[in-house]
Design a protein that fits this description.
single chain; alpha+beta; three-stranded mixed beta sheet; 14 helices; about 40% helix; binds adenosine-5'-diphosphate; binds magnesium ion
Length: about 475
Amino acid sequence: MVERLISIPNDDDDNDNFQDILVQHDDNSFPNESNMNKKISNGDCMMLPLPFYLMLHVFQHHLQRLLDNNNNISSMIHSSSYGSNQDNENQPLLRRCFDNDSIQIINNYFPDDQEFNQLIRDVEQSIDNGFLPKRISQGSSGSYFVKNHDGTKIIGVFKPKDEEPYGRLNPKWTKWMHKLCCPCCFGRSCLVPNQGYLSEAGAWIVDRKLQLNIVPKTRIVKLASVTFNYSAIDRAKSRTKKNVTERFPKVGRHFNRIGLPPKVGSLQKYVENYEDACIWLRKAETLLDENLLEIFQLEFEKLVVLDYIIRNTDRGNDNWLVKQEYNDDGELNFIKIAAIDNGLAFPFKHPDEWRAYPYYWAWLSFAKKPFSDNICRLVLQQLSDMNFVQELCDELFNLFSSDKGFDRNIFEKQMSVMRGQILNLTQALKDQKTPQQLIQMPAIIMEKSRMPNAGGKGRLRTMKDNFTQSFQRKTPFFSWF
Ligand SMILES: Nc1ncnc2c1ncn2[C@@H]1O[C@H](COP(=O)(O)OP(=O)(O)O)[C@@H](O)[C@H]1O
Ligand SMILES: [Mg+2]
């Protein structure tokens, strides 16, 4: 096998104004990391004529696009109303200047949130100090525990966009098998593919807006670490730049970035001393006296409110956590819930194909009690206010529109589902229904359109929002899982 190192013109996301380097194998085998590294470290570099550079550059570009497209196609494989040609036609001809990871984020800085700035600085420092993110073994996505600057404790959970359950670089073999052996059941047809990280951050926005305080703070950041799952090409590029920089420092100075490309994803604050609800629920009955029961019931109802509004399709009892708090005398005096793993929410239609994606809390005894006055006091007034709901939609728009795959029509559908959910929830709270009764209410879609205001005079006509309410009649084939 003959290997050559070839310099090609580069316009990748680094904006390096020098040439990028690619390894080509003459026997057409896919390059693996060890043989690339071996050759690169030998410094066996050969310069080729310009037409060759261009050809390879085009090849690299197409290969990257092929990988990206492949990912999109497989994610949308049975998504009927998403990913049509029309979507492509809606894309602007001139692409916006987003980076490789498709989101406009600068320096992991949040002017309105010093607490989170502190958290992300701590995480960046820990990676610099060699305390690398560690993949969480449970779960279906590439999720990582990240540590503080001296590596003594876990402070966050990072979920990169491209390692989501159906993402291009998902590291879990179960999802790979799922994709390979059962493509017809692959993905969730009601969800926008590969936007789980937005859903995670969106759930926190809903939580904050309603002051539920059950979702740990979650925002979108960019991180790089060798422990993340990268493509062989990305690893080779980074290694090559490092070697070039070491051997030819003058040339290396032209690279903007030497290391692996940062990945965009959601970073959620790690909450301490919580346990999985499925474990805690086994001992719940023996723990809860009347006072604690009332406290827990409110926490539980907050979870119901959150899940119902975002139409969470993945609320198993392993995706929420419970913490017991004790007073100075060591008596249990408070119980708190943390709603984690909110990446499979904000559908653009109600589930209507194979699976119903039930809320698993619906089988608990707490779901058979009418909504309490406490929860009504907390959320009912806000949810009944159309301006409040519009503000919420606007905040979600700011978040979701930062993704390169953002489609305004799809987003409007997501908001139509959410508004329908809010309408049902408001009615259920007013009627003091139980959570179990709430989830049996017919699924509503509330579409927004802009109409000329009938009250407008003369040539100055104003626009007003018009809402059309409809019921989704199609129901899932299986409703028990
Ligand atoms: N914010 C958090 N605070 C504390 N523990 C967490 C947090 N997020 C996740 N975990 C722990 O990590 C496990 C896997 O996280 P999860 O978000 O469910 O990942 P996945 O998407 O892979 O299922 C959870 O069961 C929980 O024990
Ligand atoms: Mg999970």
